[in-house]
Amino acid sequence: MDKSPLKTLTLEEFLESERHKLTGTLTPVTPETFAKWKKERLDKKAAEEEARMAKEATGRAMFEKGDWGSDTEEEDEEDVEEDGDGEPAEDGDEGWNMEMMRAETEKVREEEERERIKGVGGQ
Q: From CA 56, how far away is CA 108, in angstroms rounded?
């Protein structure tokens, strides 16, 4: 049993034998090719994570994080909420800004589509 190939075969010999089994066009691993591969891999992971976060950004999650509001205070001042009788809503009686929600939803959809197209074009 001491003469089994698993006991006598060194790691280098094993790797060399496995390397000869590979077929097709192989790219030699150099510091440059590795750096390129690593960058593409990290970019892909970041895009996937961003897409996952956008997918998880449901209305409730966006509300809880506070991301659903306007980016500037000027827009907030222009978008005075009304409660249906032509007067601004009272404190605690805030309404939904459907236009803002539509714009946010469209922005997320466009970003997802860009990422999808980028993924298809990159292959």
A: 11
